[in-house]
Amino acid sequence: MNVSDKKIIIFDDDEDILSICSYILEEQGWDVHTFTDCNNIVEKVRSVNPAVILMDNWIPDAGGIVATQTLKKTEDLKDIPVIYFSANSDIQLLAEHAGAETYLAKPFDLDALEQIINTVLVKE
User: Fold this and answer.
1) Which of 121, 120, 122, 70 is nearest to 98 (CA)?
2) First to last CA, the chain
3) What is the pLDDT of residue 122?
4) How many angstroms separate the CA atoms of 70 and 20, rounded?
5) In this predicted structure, what is the pLDDT of residue 1?
6) How far apart are CA 94 and CA 87, in angstroms?
7) Would residue 63 be called left, alpha or beta, if left means φ above 0 and alpha means ψ between -120 and 50 degrees?
8) What is the mean pLDDT of each run of 10 residues along the chain (124 residues)?
9) Residue-level pLDDT at 37
């Protein structure tokens, strides 16, 4: 992967999580784009064309499941890996229902965040 491909989108309405994740990922050379809602998600994702997406379960308005399913039904976006993240105890089921590639339970440590991003990128 070359540097120009290192774009990531984080969808989360928690500003603290956005700022922490952005800081950590930018330190690793990622070009981080954040959104606090998933309205017009197809347009948002197309405008960035990321290598990977982090999706919160409770993102306004439609929620992470609908947002992820929308991406997975969109031909030019369906192959972008989605990492579903949530504090919900049923996160594995939620991620599967959404069609996400994998999931990360909140609260997570930053090593786990790095590992899971690397995991989905290696599959390409």
Assistant:
1) 70
2) 10
3) 75
4) 27
5) 52
6) 11
7) left
8) 77 95 95 98 97 96 97 98 95 97 93 93 68
9) 98
Residue with tokens 């952005």: 22
Distance CA 104, CA 117 (A): 10
Domains of the chain: 3-122 (3.40.50.2300)
Q: How many residues does the chain have?
A: 124
56 and 14 Cβ atoms separated by less than 8 Å: yes
Residue that the structure tokens 């599959």 belong to: 123
Contact yes or no for 50/7 (Cβ under 8 A): yes
Q: For residue 53, how far is the Cα from the chain centroid?
A: 3
Give the other-Cβ count within 10 Å of 68's Cβ: 27
Sign of CA dihedral 80, 35, 100, 30: positive
